[in-house]
UniProtKB/TrEMBL annotation:
Record's protein name: Glucosamine-6-phosphate deaminase
Family that this chain belongs to: Belongs to the glucosamine/galactosamine-6-phosphate isomerase family. NagB subfamily.
GO biological process: carbohydrate metabolic process; glucosamine catabolic process; N-acetylglucosamine catabolic process; N-acetylneuraminate catabolic process
Record organism: Streptomyces fradiae ATCC 10745 = DSM 40063
Recorded metabolic or biological pathway in which this protein acts: Amino-sugar metabolism; N-acetylneuraminate degradation; D-fructose 6-phosphate from N-acetylneuraminate: step 5/5
Cross-referenced InterPro entries: Glc/Gal-6P_isomerase, Glucosamine6P_isomerase, Glucosamine6P_isomerase_CS, NagB/RpiA_transferase-like
Site residues (Part of the allosteric site), renumbered to this chain: 146, 153, 155-156
Free-text function comment from the UniProt entry: Catalyzes the reversible isomerization-deamination of glucosamine 6-phosphate (GlcN6P) to form fructose 6-phosphate (Fru6P) and ammonium ion.
Lineage of producing organism: Bacteria, Bacillati, Actinomycetota, Actinomycetes, Kitasatosporales
GO cellular component: cytoplasm
Residue ranges of domain Glucosamine/galactosamine-6-phosphate isomerase in the record: 10-226
Length: 261
């Protein structure tokens, strides 16, 4: 696992955006897996700036969604489909037909989960998956004690995750859904390159457990240790609990191996 320590969230966003741009120069129709929440916004902003400056062509790029709330009506502004359209697809000028996501409004949610796994496989798999991490070490909505071999499925959110997400619903916890569809850890691990971005002191314990702790279902993000090409980008605050921070600075600061194995 590569651990790249950057000065702040903006620097992390610039670094990851350049990795995506480099991928698209090599593979113009790459399938990019995107995460929602506030953490990856600097990535999308930096990538949009590159597109507008003519530094990269995204016209053939495709986007894949990591997860989705269950039960929100179609078009709800806080559905993850709406969020990805608003934060990624529209700013980049992509066609909505280039967007894959699970159906959180389906009557048969299990069938929708299986259909999304098939759609990802039929699309050739995710080339680069952007990930955030929860304070409890979850990735996607794979909460602690999720199976490390899990596939796309329905999950019940923990109370802490619902509290964390209430800020997107005007602080109203009662409006946050109890269930989500999420790519499973096994599904996530099939992406060719995993890039996790974490910023802020509140993520320091989760980052340390992910990078330096044992692989354990209690810390779902620790499964990234099993991946042949995983990159963790953290700011100084999120890196503050890493025992090997000095080693990571020396080893990966100059040039992460973005192009894979």
């Amino acid at each position: 696992m590569e651990v790249v320590i950057v000065q702040d969230a903006k620097a992390g966003g610039e670094l990851i955006a350049e990795a995506i741009a480099d991928l698209l120069r090599r593979k113009p129709d790459a399938l990019l897996g995107v995460a929602t929440g506030s953490t990856p916004l600097p990535v999308y902003e930096a990538l949009t700036a590159k597109v507008r400056a003519g530094a990269v062509d995204v016209s053939r790029a495709r986007i894949a969604q990591l997860d989705e709330y269950v039960g929100l009506p179609a078009g709800h502004p806080e559905s993850y489909r709406s969020t990805v359209l608003r934060q990624v697809v529209e700013p980049l000028g992509l066609d909505r037909g280039a967007f894959l996501g699970p159906d959180g409004t389906a009557e048969d949610v299990q069938a929708a989960c299986e259909a999304y796994d098939r759609a990802l496989a039929e699309a050739g798999g995710v080339d680069l998956q952007i990930l955030g991490i929860g304070t409890d070490g979850h990735i996607g909505f794979n909460e602690p004690c999720s199976s490390l071999a899990s596939r796309t499925r329905i999950k019940t959110l923990t109370e802490q995750t619902r509290i964390d997400n209430a800020r997107f619903f005007d602080g109203r916890l009662d409006q946050v859904p109890h269930h989500v569809i999420t790519q499973g850890i096994g599904t996530i691990l099939e992406a060719r390159h995993l890039v996790l971005l974490a910023t802020g002191e509140g993520k320091a314990d989760a980052v340390a457990a992910t990078v330096e702790g044992p692989v354990a279902a209690l810390v779902p993000a620790s499964a990234l240790q099993l991946h042949p090409h995983a990159t963790v980008v953290v700011d100084e605050a999120a890196a503050s609990k890493l025992k090997l921070a000095g080693y990571f600075r020396q080893t990966y600061a100059a040039k992460p191996s973005w192009q894979g194995l």
